Amino acid sequence: MPGSGSGLSVQRCLTFTTGLVECLCFAGAVFGWASLVFVLKEEGYFSSLCVNGTGVNGTHVLDCTEQDEQFSLIFTIASFMNNFLTLPNGFLFDRFGTTVTRLYGIFLYTIGTVMVAFSTSVLAILLFPALSLLAVGGILFLMTNMQVGNLFGSHRSTIITLYNGAFDSSSALFLVIKLLHERGIALRSSFLFLSACSVVHLLRTFFLLPRKTIPYPLPDNYTYGITCGKSDNRISEVAENRDAQKVEEVPLNKDASAKQEKSFRDCLLSRFFMWHLLWLSVMQLRHYLFIGTLNPMLQRLTAGESSLVSQYTNAFAITQLCGVLCAPWNGLIMDRHKGKPRAEGESEQEVDLRATVLSLFLTALQCLLFSICASTPYLPLQYLTFVLQVLNRSFLYGGNAAFISVAFPSCHFGKLYGLVMALSAVFSLLQYPCFALVKVLDGDPLYVNIGLTLLSLLAFIHPLSVYLHCRSVSSQRVKNKAMTQSS
Questions:
Q1: Would you call the peptide bond into 215 cis, given omega within 30 degrees of 0 as the criterion?
Q2: pLDDT tens across 172-185, in order?
Q3: Per-residue pLDDT tens digits for 242-272
Q4: Would the pLDDT of 26 be above 60?
Q5: pLDDT tens sequence across 309-363
Q6: At what angle do helices 156-169 and 382-407 cross, to 10 degrees?
Q7: How would you write the chain as a 3-class SS string?
Q8: What is the rounded average pLDDT of the residues 232-238?
């Protein structure tokens, strides 16, 4: 019926729009940590760790290295939890579906915001569990929203990439809280408002998202959510999900069948997985250390001038908003071959894999340039550092998911995605020893930054490995073709 079709279209558009707003305004807020640190310092959090010291000219200065170390440790733990718990959260999502996973995520996010709201300079210790809860709850928002791309068929990849970009841009939320704080809005009021927004998350969960998961490919007349007067929607959804699963189990061609035969263990021990893990880990470590140490870096470069620190902190947070605009570019690079004819005997997976080489290389190159700029102790250059950082970060996570979906069987995507994020989280714990090393070097991060820049060169191994593999497969195909023709 036209009416019902129109209503279904409106519901899907609402699902997409509200999901984008949810990712943009809440999901990745923890990565705007530098803006919140500025507010927390003004509120006196961990100020008791600041001690009187002696400057270069014998002047008395306030040494807040221990305070910075505490803030860095909070972010280190939160960013680790954000990635490491992706693996069990992925199994939770696959096993229990959207509603249960989102209720769990909303609970964690709400508790986290309430903890920050009722923390004080005396109860600063509450920030440790609070930021971790915000990080885990936020990644669950992203995880349950990415399936919305399944509702839009040909635009599926674009929407998934867009949601990942919105997740990056949501780090600007703490900038908004910082600006409100400068205008007299208490930190507690801002976080209590975020807690109250959980009502909206709950409404989306029950009315604009499925109880289980959105299947792909999408069955005809697929319905989801609670709709007045349509009590059979849940039954319809379950039946259609079962039908979709049956469709996905049938291989479309011989190439797909061969691809599905690869076991999870084979994927895990493959050269692709190992180099991809290294590719993600070294760049992610560089980003996490930069975000976690941004405030003390700006303090050093501005000689502690509060107005300049605030100005550059705001500039960093504003550039984070551009993540939602940068993320789809990587998708366009990886999809540039779509619709073009393939060579004889060339599989779709081979073409897709070859298309990832440019994306992987550009991401590694962006990280190298970003790291060089971040290592240069010249304050105005940090504006370029901020731009390169948000561009590289938006390419990094979208490219991570896209490569796993192309290089490995779809039946292992959730497990491999969760595992690579979890293992890279363990690697990212190196940021805290790096910060401790900076402290040993009298607060000068130059040598640590140079070391991380050299480490980021390892990321170029992955695109080179994929390129050599694709060239080898292509050469073998041409050789087999020549042998067939000669015989």
A1: no
A2: 899 899 999 999 99
A3: 444 443 333 434 444 444 457 878 888 899 9
A4: yes
A5: 888 888 887 887 787 788 778 777 877 766 666 666 667 677 778 888 998 999 9
A6: 140
A7: CHHHHHHHHHHHHHHHHHHHHHHHHHHCHHHHHHHHHHHHHHCCCCHHHCEEEECCCCCEEEECHHHHHHHHHHHHHHHHHHHHCHHHHHHHHHHHHHHHHHHHHHHHHHHHHHHHHCCCCCCHHHHHHHHHHHHHHHHHHHHHHHHHHHHHHHHHHHHHHHHHHHHHHHHHHHHHHHHHHHCCCCHHHHHHHHHHCHHHHHHHHHHCCCCCCCCCCCCCCCCCCCCCCCCCHHHHHHHHHHHHHHHHHCCCCHHHHHHHCCCHHHHHCCHHHHHHHHHHHHHHHHHHHHHHCHHHHHHHHCCCCHHHHHHHHHHHHHHHCCHHHHHHHHHHHHCCCCCCCCCCCCCHHHHHHHHHHHHHHHHHHHHHHHHHHHHCCCHHHHHHHHHHHHHHHHHHHHHHHHHHHHHCCHHHHHHHHHHHHHHHHHHHCCHHHHHHHHHHCCCCCHHHHHHHHHHHHHHHHHHHHHHHHHHHHHHHHHHHHHHHHHC
A8: 45
